[in-house]
Design brief:
- 2 copies of one chain form a homodimer.
- The first copy, chain A, contains 10 helices and 2 strands, in the order αββααααααααα.
- By secondary structure, chain A is mainly alpha-helical.
- The interface between A and B is large, with 58 and 58 residues.
């Protein structure tokens, strides 16, 4: 009977929904549990007596973005900026952090990170995974004002953190100001508030002998 | 001569600006350098073999918010949510993290955190400090949809992290499901996606003997 068919269809539809919902939750939980590993991806800078990890770095970058958001004109869309910052290093769970002056590592970085992105964001329900991946790609492409503002915050954090910890990783390779500038110039080019803060930090780094003039 | 007066005034104005700008930068840098200490504020949960800190926790909460933002209707303003999450634990730099089941600590938590907020946000230029403090207060007051969504992400992170690490802090105090629910009920009351994920995690916690039934 048609009514029975419809009701059977409805039951089937509800069953599929009920089945889909727990799978969706499990997908979120699997991704969020895996994300914990970013707390064990170590960076070149120190915090206190130990290496800084990429998870706490990402929080520090988010705090910088929140603090400086009203210092730039026009104001960036803070939701997009902070979403980018939350996901910008997630691929390092598999690909590892690549030190800004590790030339060999930089050669393979993009390839390693793309493969990691496919696997990690692939744990999520497809539309959520695509949205987070797009946010990561927006940051990498550096084509929007939000991506550039997020990059400025990211570079400022890495630079400030090195100077605050006495820059052992810079000293180890005898980093020159000129070589450091290759990394920092895109952030300086953003102008205020990044340029004056970074230039003041360069003065401090040189005065403290953390960079080779 | 009036034109000289005006030009002298202009010079004076520019001098004041030039003087104000470095002080403003120094205020930002002092706040952002102090923020590093949140990476050494330890929480009750573990990550790997060590205690989790509040900075990496805050990043994990931001990732949860970014991931789940499109699962709730109406969609929260993600910029406000993620700004709240970035600042929500900054006061712990001075006040420390208070374990959710430390009844003695909870009694003095608000007072300790308010004093810390005044000192820490007080490092910033006044309008920036006021904005960050308002964001922290919005989270604490739990009166807006954004604050409640951020709270749901915060509670889910703490709960998931304990279960993932085998919940040594719960076992130590013999935490019961009923006592845990006092903490988790506000997040469960938000409905999907929080309620089904948290209820699924309760099933897992009980099956693994992490909570007393």
């Amino acid at each position: 009977m048609p009514s029975d068919d419809r009701s059977a269809e409805r039951r089937e539809g509800l069953n599929q929904q009920a089945k889909a919902a727990p799978e969706r939750q499990e997908a979120f939980l699997a991704f969020l549990a895996l994300a914990d590993r970013l707390k064990h991806t170590l960076r070149a800078a120190h915090t206190g007596e130990r290496r800084e990890n990429s998870a706490e770095h990402a929080w520090h970058v988010a705090l910088i973005a929140t603090t400086l958001a009203e210092e730039v004109v026009p104001r960036p869309d803070l939701g997009r900026v902070l979403a980018m910052i939350a996901v910008h290093d997630v691929v390092e769970i598999e690909a590892g952090d690549t030190f800004a002056f590790d030339d060999a590592g930089l050669l393979t970085q993009l390839e390693r990170e793309r493969a990691a992105a496919a696997r990690i964001f692939g744990l999520l329900p497809p539309e959520t995974g695509a949205r987070l991946r797009e946010s990561w790609e927006e940051f990498e492409a550096q084509e929007t004002p939000e991506a550039r503002f997020a990059m400025g915050c990211d570079r400022l954090q890495g630079f400030l953190q090195q100077i605050e910890c006495g820059a052992p990783a810079w000293k180890e390779i005898g980093l020159t100001k000129a070589r450091s500038l290759v990394r920092m110039q895109p952030a300086i080019d953003l102008g205020a508030p990044f340029a004056p803060m970074i230039l003041a930090l360069y003065d401090r780094a040189l005065a403290e002998g953390l960079l080779v003039p």
